[in-house]
Structures are given as C-alpha cells and as structure tokens.
Amino acid sequence: MGNKPEIIAVSIDMYVSNLSSRKMRNQLKRHFNHKISHVSILDWVRRYTLKVYKFIENQGYNFGGRFYADETMVDCEGRKDRFWCCLDWDTRLITGVHYSLTANPVEAQKFLKKAITKGKPKYIQTDAGMFYPRAFRKMFYSNKFGGLTVEYRIQNYQETRIHNYRIETVFMKIKDRVLDFRGLKALWSAPILLNAIVIQHNFIETHTTINEIPCETAGVKLGLGENKWLDLIKLNSTFY
Fold it and tell me: Which domains does the chain have, with CATH numbers?
C-alpha cells in the first residue's frame, strides 16, 4: 500500500478517536500535504482492525473476578441493531463483544460465550433483560460446557433505581463515537468499526480511573511506543 505506515496508523487512531474519514483526509492534506481519499482511510481502519484483532485475541489475560455485561442499540442502515459488551471491572478491559440484529436468548448465549473466551470470572452482572437468565442457564449449568459455574447477578433498575453503571460508562464512549459516524452505514462493516473502538479502549488509551492502559493492567505488556496502532500492526506479521 503506497503510503507511509505512520500516515496509516495516525489516520486509524484519529478516526477511531473522534475524526470522520473526511476530516482526517483534510488534516492530512493541510498539515502533511498528503492527498488521500476518505474512502481509503475507512478501508485502512477496517483492514488493520481485522489484522490487529486476530493478534490480540491470542494474548493471555489476567482478569479479576467481576464481569459486567450489557447490550445497547446502535444505528445501522436505519435499524436499531444490538451491540453487546462485557467489561472486567478490575482491569477495565473489554473481555468480549457481539453484534446482532436483535436481542434474544440465542444471541445472549453467543455473547456470553465470547465474554468468557479470554478468562472466567467469579460472577457476571447484567441488567434485568429477560433474555439473560435463560442464556445464562444454558451456558454455565450444562454438561455441554463442562459444568462451569459462574454466579449470575442482576441489577434491576426498576427495583433498585441503580443502573448497571460500570458497563454504561463504556457504552457512553461507544455511542458518542457512533454519533460521530452519523450512524453505521453497512451491516458487514459495523462490527469491524465497533471492534476498532474496543481495541482503542483496551490497547491504546490510558483509562482515567486506573491511570493505565487496560491491557497492561490485565498483564498484557507488549512494549508499545507512542504510536500504539503502528506498533500493534507491526506486531502482526501480516502487516508487511
């Protein structure tokens, strides 16, 4: 790809952070006299998100025992799709995500399976969504999954007037970025772009509460420099 790796990496970083592909194109032209199509920038985000995702999924993580899980609606092609997300509270690392067109026990079970792929918690807390209990029983109390036992906790806002706030803070960040996208334009692309936001959260940005990047708190220290997207891409041998 006839562009400097540094240009590609900064474009991905700024796009995922807060700039649209068109604004990033304008910044490159204004500050670096570098002419590139906004479509190319979006292609970079998708291409290298997929490559980096394969690499980070094979890392070993050390989690705490408290997982908080929830789903939220995102605009895509005029629909209200569902984006599911699970957070380890001790490390603030997003342990697993899932994208679906609707919310039901089958999709909830797919999500829970992804949420524990990197590590098993002592408990998982969700809101009072009606699809979670059935999915939870099938996941954690079935011989099919080795009889794994994980405590299930429900934060029912109607009863307690307390939200499942520990995951809501993550969704606020995700929803803000989707608003910047002005909605997601294609179903095939939407999960990739949301995964880019997850990578940014887990590996790029220092969390303000723990004052550390979540992946490092979870024991994954890759020695990334200031240009973390570029270093992540280079760590994936398929970059060059």
Answer: 5-58+222-235 (no CATH), 66-217 (3.30.420.10)
